Amino acid sequence: MAHVSESKKKIVDEFSKLFEDYPIIASVDLENLPAPQLQNMRATLRDKVVLKMTKRRLINIAIDKAKDKKPGIEKLKENLKGMPALIFTKESPFLLYKTIKQNKSPAPAKAGQIAPKDIVVPAGSTPFSPGPVIGELGALGIKSGVESGKIAIKEDAVVAKEGEAISAELASMLTRLGITPMEVGLDIVAAYEDGTIYPRKLLDIDEEQFMGELTTAAQGAFNLAIESGYTTKENAGVFIIKAFNQAKSLAMESGFMADAVVADMLSKAEREMLSLKLAAKIQ
């Protein structure tokens, strides 16, 4: 690194040491994060992570130095977006993403910003009186009409796809509609763990949906094991109960006396006797 100044060498060495000390490294984009929110996030995460920022070129040099000890870390260079910084932690990358996501707050869109996800204008009433706004909505692909003296949006409309730039007209309309599609907070782009790069989409788990799918899969596996006669410790009790009931039914049908069927056989005999008595008209 003969072309790097001493001060920059110290920065690279600091990053290199952090690469050695921490198993989880996440790239974050600070481009749209105001300074007060950044300080708040630093305070929130102080005991869990180390957040470091510097020039992209120096981060790339540090990553190149670390790639022998951290196989696959060089792929993180592809995920240095906007104003990049790195988070170093020993926590699960999924838990890290969840913590950061929970500390984000909604914000209005500004012209030129990139949509973090599909932006939807929902159907329903608006505060607008009939007028030129109908044309403005139409220009943005939003179908509207007049209902009860106010402009109403007739159906949900996707006005910006994830990754698309937000126009000045759309940003203004979203603000007027009270829609805040942006989020203020740290923006994790990807995370590295043990040779694997996890992109944001993979880290952003809907826990409720995931647990629902896991429950459905577990129930399906349980039912399949029962139907196929495959015994496990989870379904052994079901098989025992099923075998007991089948044996009991067989004993009842064949008249085989056993402790488990004595009461049932006596009840059956009594019912048959009463039926016979009734049929014979015996008082």
Descriptive labels:
single chain, 5-stranded antiparallel β-sheet, flat, 283 residues, alpha+beta, Alpha-Beta Plaits, 3-stranded antiparallel β-sheet, Molybdopterin biosynthesis moea protein, domain 2, 3 domains
Overview of this protein structure:
The chain has 283 residues and is an alpha+beta fold. It has ten helices and twelve strands. The model has no long low-confidence stretch (mean pLDDT 87).
CATH A-level architecture of the largest domain: 2-Layer Sandwich
Which structural class fits the helix and strand makeup? alpha+beta
The average pLDDT is 87
Physical arrangement of strands within the biggest beta sheet = 2-3-1-11-12
Task: Determine the number of helices (DSSP H or I, runs of at least 4 residues).
Answer: 10
- How many strand segments? 12
Percent of sequence in beta strands: 15-25%
Rough outline: flat
Order of helices and strands: HEHEHEHEEEHEEEHEEEHHHH
Radius of gyration computed on alpha carbons: 33 Å
Summarize the amount of helix as a percent range. Answer: 40-55%
The separation of the N and C termini measures 114 Å
CATH superfamily of the largest domain: Ribosomal protein L10, N-terminal RNA-binding domain
How many domains, as an integer?
A: 3
Q: Quick one: biggest sheet?
A: 5 strands, antiparallel
CATH class of the largest domain: Alpha Beta
Unreliable stretches, pLDDT < 50, 5 or more residues?
A: none
Instruction: Report the CATH topology name of the largest domain.
Output: Alpha-Beta Plaits
